[in-house]
Amino acid sequence: MPTRLRRSVLACPGSNPRMMEKAAASAADEVFLDLEDACAPLEKPAARGKVVEALRTHDWQGKVRVVRINQVSSQFALDDIREIVTGAGDVLDCIMVPKVQNAGDIAFVDRALGSLEQTLGYELGSIGIEAQVEDALGLMSAEEIAFASKRIETITYGPADFSANMQLPSLTVANSYNYPGDIFHYVLFKLAVAARAAGIQVIDGPYLLIRDIEGFREAAGRAAALGYDGKWVLHPGQIEPANEVFTPSQEDFDKAVQILEAYRHATEVERRGAVMLGDEMIDEASRKMAMQFELRGRAAGLTPSPREEAAEAVAG
After folding, report:
1. Last residue of some domain: 223, 245, 267?
2. Percent of the chain having pLDDT more than 90?
3. Which of 43-52, 167-176, 240-249 has the lowest mean pLDDT?
4. Annotation-wise, does 21 bind a ligand?
């Protein structure tokens, strides 16, 4: 299973060729071209051809390329999959499935993709799935969804539809709830646990107040604190803060590298199971924590600081 960089996941209407062109040139790690909520019902059939053209025409600069189909119970979903994969399956990374409520929703998409891959001569399993949980039933089924297919690469939270489904007393997705704490903490953490148990990534949904960059940064920071890999962005102005929040700091990255080096020396040279690094005892659990920092940092393009600077940072 590929582990792709998804710090910033840019939503883009599949019916708007100009916006798709701009999305391809953006600094987002992933772009998903939307055939669902961002497309008016009468525009959905025509949007498929526009999405195929955009996928085949633009230089996506190494981005993760995804198409969000319509809900599997809709009249559009099967044709969405068939036309997108037939037209651009060789340049498509994943299909995003919205409003997933159970493992059967994922099985439907998995089998449709498998049939098309065989028909078109693609490697079986080459197109991944991103599962979006957006209501109470989906949250209750989060564990079975996460394990529903080997194709699944992410679980993604959909806060707007979830808020509507739960009848929350708010008209936007922002930090405006009169509640002592993060009202979405349980949801975010449950999805994170399900994703990590299945060995896949977990992505937070959008922050709708696109001009409130500090509010976006705070929301992204809460998701990052729970181990999330990234967050949706709805506007180019949200891309930079998302990439920053979900990238380890240089100081943390350097410390992780030092922990890994110190632990390797302790276990392989000195043959000890634990060792001191500064004032901190490190052991196998420390290695595991440091490993995920190093992997995230290297995926984001970080390199270790010169040894003297890194040592000073850790000591400080």
Report:
1. 245
2. 78
3. 167-176
4. no
Beta bridge partners of 275: 282
Pairwise CA distance, residues 149 & 128, whole Å: 9
- Burial tier of 73 (Cβ tally within 10 Å: 0-12, 13-18, 19+): exposed
User: Is 3 contained in some domain?
Assistant: no
Helical (H) or strand (E) element with 293: helix 284-299
Q: Residue 111, annotated ligand binder?
A: no
Q: How many CB atoms lie within 10 A of CB 99?
A: 23
Please check whether residue 36 lies inside any domain of the structure: yes
Give 172's pLDDT tier (boundaries 50, 70, 90).
confident
Dist. CA 308–CA 313, nearest whole Å = 9
Residues 171 and 81 in one domain: yes
* Residue 90 φ/ψ, nearest 5 degrees: -80, -10
The predicted pLDDT at position 208 comes to: 92
257 and 236, same domain (yes or no): no
Instruction: State the pLDDT at residue 170.
Output: 81
Residue 127: which of 111, 106, 113, 108 has the closest Cα? Answer: 113
| Digit-coded pLDDT (tens) for 209-231 | 999 999 999 999 999 999 999 99
Q: Which CATH number goes with the domain that contains 191?
A: 3.20.20.60
Looking at the domain assignment, is residue 239 inside a domain? yes
From 217, 245, 273, the end of a domain falls on 245
**Domain range holding 272?**
250-315
Does residue 59 have a known ligand-binding role? no
Instruction: Specify the pLDDT at position 1.
Output: 45
Specify the amino acid at residue 248.
Answer: P
